[in-house]
Amino acid sequence: MKVYTYSEARQKLSEVLDRAAREPVRIKRRRGEMFDVVRRPVPDSPFDIPGVKTKATTEDILQAIRESRSPRRIAKG
What we know:
By secondary structure, this protein is of the alpha+beta class. It has a three-stranded mixed sheet. The chain has three helices and three strands; from the N terminus they run E-H-H-E-E-H.
């Protein structure tokens, strides 16, 4: 683990972040406080899903949407 002083980290922020992408980095303040910098991976989007194969056409899908939005009549019995 590479240790940078606070001043070094400020001057070489790009280098610190590049290194933190590969391994943890520690920044030490003058008073002895220590801070660890680690990379956090970006989570996958919940909308990133594989497609579905279907025989439905665009017109089939649009018709289903129209039907779902039209007012429904309740049969009285």
